[in-house]
Each structure stands twice: as structure tokens, then as C-alpha cells.
Give the backbone structure.
Amino acid sequence: MEVGLTQILLLSTALFFIGVYGFLTRRNMITMLMAVELMLNAVNINFIAFNKYLWGGKLDGVFFTIFIIAIAAAEAAVAIAIVINIYRNFGSIDAEDADSLKL
Amino acid sequence: MEASNIIFYLLGALILACGVLAVTSRQIFRAAIYLLFCMMGVAGLYFWMQYEFIAAVQIVVYVGGIVVLIIFSIFLTHRVGNDLAEPERKRTLFAGLASLFAFLLFWSVIKRNEFFGEQPSGELSVRRIGEEMLNYKQGGFVLPFEVVSILLLAAMIGCIVIAMRAQTEKN
């Protein structure tokens, strides 16, 4: 089968929902962060594929991808700082254990 | 079947297999390594689409930055060798069903629609990316570039402030 935009979109959709599945099932904060990174990667693949196949000659999709990668790096750094702080305070990074704001 | 198609399917299989293992592996360190190979597969897909600059950025930032950061934080917060707890059966079932149905919905939408556009363009010079990024005329990207640089500065300072040990412990 000839590979075109459809196949790439199916691949990125599958990757996105693998990330969603991981985010819903994992309770460990670092693995949840990894699932979020998978979802961001799926979105990046979509932007690049649309830029290549439908928006030739322009660079909007490429720039979206570059900025998403930059923001993902910032987000990962802040998330890991928060995770380390939570580990210091609760002794665990399970999302169920950090419940001191619950009534 | 052309060679480029075969390469695409191999890359897709690598990405999906490593992605599934990254979200299901019981050992957190192995999950991080699977995530690393998944990111490498995505970089290979960008190479396959002839967007070499994006592939290089993907490798430098994701593989060299984010995954290494995740591995460091695993070492700081976990005892190596301890397995993660098994997720509840009910939660696994419903999360799997929700993801599967959403994927099938998207699949049907993508299959039903045809995408029309210009011919695929392979050329993407780094010079053009740089010129567009600092272009302040109509359609240029200098404003988001500046905003992202401020965001990165804010994230850096925020990380230091959040992860810093409180001063009161000394007293």
C-alpha cells in the first residue's frame, strides 16, 4: 500500500491513544509524564505530516513543531522539579499519595 | 512494494511497539528506555519525511534532554529493582476501552476523508527556517520566538525555586 498522509495520521493517532491509555492507567507521576510526552510527539508528527503533504512551501507546521518541542522541554523540567519536591514532602511519587489538599 | 514504504512500516512498528511497552512495562527504568527508543523512531520518521532539521532537534531535545532528565529523576526517586504496582484491573479495562473506541472513531474519520493539497515538498533548508524565525514582517515568527525565550527563562527560574531546599531546615 502506498504510504501517504493517511497512513502517517493513523500512526500518530495510535501513538496519541497509547499515550492516553498510559496516562489513565499509570499512577506514578514520572510514568504519567512519559505518557504526556508520547502524546506531544503524536501531535508533532501530525503537524509535520500536514506541513509536508498539504502545506508545501510554507513553514507554519514546522514552526509549530519547534515551539511545541521547546515548550515540552520547559514543561518536563518544571514537572520533574515538582515531582522531586513532592517526593521530598510525601516520600512517594504516587499520584494517590499526594492528597493533602483533599477534604 | 517500494523501499521507502517498507522503511515507513518498520519505523511505525518500532514507534508503536516501544510506545506500548513504555506505558505498560512494570519496571520504570525499562519504561524510560522504551520511551527513548520510541523518540528515536519518531526522529527516524522525520528523517523519512526529509525534515532533517526537525529530526535533529527531536534527537537533541527529546532523546538527549527530556529522556535523560526523566532517567535522572527516576534515579533520585526510586530504588532500582522495585517493580511498579499493578494497576487496578477495572481501571486498565476502562482506559483500554476508552482509548480503543476513540482510536476507532478517529480511524473512521481519517479513512472517510481524502486530503487534497499541494504536492509534497521535500525541500526545507535550515537557512530558511532561521530567516523565517527572525522575520518581523507579515507572516514572520519573531514574536512567538521571543515569547518562547521568555517562557524558557521563566521555566528555568521556576525549576530552581521549586526544587530548592527550604532555608528553614538550617535553623
About this structure: Chain B has two domains: 1-84, 125-171. The helical segments of chain B are 3-24, 28-48, 52-77, 89-112, 126-133, 142-163. The mean pLDDT of chain B is 88. The radius of gyration of chain B is 21 Å.
